[in-house]
Amino acid sequence: MDEITILQAEVLKTLASPRRIEILHELARGPIEVGRLAEAIGASQPNVSQHLAVLRNAGIVEAVRDGREVRYGLVDPDVMVACGLMRTVLERRLTRLGEVAANAGSTSPAPAWAAPEAALVATVSNRSASR
């Protein structure tokens, strides 16, 4: 296995947290202090600091001192391109699953990949309905 594949897996492991992805979306707006970031996402400052440390160790965010303040920002804004691409892939997947669910009453069987993901569609639908 090559080194870039190993690094890719490590970064993806780091991004496997909804809170960290939420932090990245806030940082995409521009550098921000921990306290303001915590307030913006409705989390405690210690919790956000822990997530920022993990993201820093992975090389995804950086801390920049501005006088007495430390602001965090994205090292490479293309990380948001990657996140956006994955979001698009997932939206298309959910659309396909929704189509399968809508056609469940038809005589043609659902594709094999659809069965294990039915719970995902139900979860997303329930979350959307409760907002």
Short overview:
The protein contains six helices and three strands; from the N terminus they run ααβααββαα.
For the record, what CATH class of the largest domain applies? Mainly Alpha
- CATH fold naming of the largest domain: Arc Repressor Mutant, subunit A
Reading the helices and strands in chain order gives HHEHHEEHH
Q: Which runs of at least 5 residues are low in confidence (pLDDT < 50)?
A: none
**The number of domains:** 2
Any idea what the radius of gyration is?
19 Å
Q: What is the topological layout?
A:
Elements: H1 3-14, H2 18-27, E1 32-33, H3 34-41, H4 45-57, E2 61-66, E3 69-74, H5 78-102, H6 118-130
List keywords for this structure.
131 residues, single chain, three-stranded antiparallel sheet, Arc Repressor Mutant, subunit A, 62% helix, 6 helices, 2 domains, mainly alpha, 11% strand
Describe the 3D structure.
It contains 6 helices and 3 strands. The protein is globular and about 65 Å long. It has 131 residues and is mostly helical. It has 2 domains: 3-76, Winged helix-like DNA-binding domain superfamily/Winged helix DNA-binding domain (Arc Repressor Mutant, subunit A), CATH 1.10.10; 79-130, no CATH class.
